[in-house]
Amino acid sequence: MYDVDYFGSDKCEVVVLFCFILDDESSKRSSSELRANLTELLRISEGKLSSLTEERDQLNVSLSEITEECSRLQGWRRRSEPHTHTPKNISHKENCCPAGWKKFSHFCLLLSNETGSWDEGRKDCRARGADLVVIDSPEKQGFLISMSTTETIAWIGLTDRVEEGNWTWINGAPLSEGYWKRSQPDNGGQPRSKTMQEDCAHLTVGLTITNNWNDLPCEWIQKWICEQSSKCDQDGRDGVQMKA
Question: What is the reported pTM?
Answer without folding.
Answer: 0.58
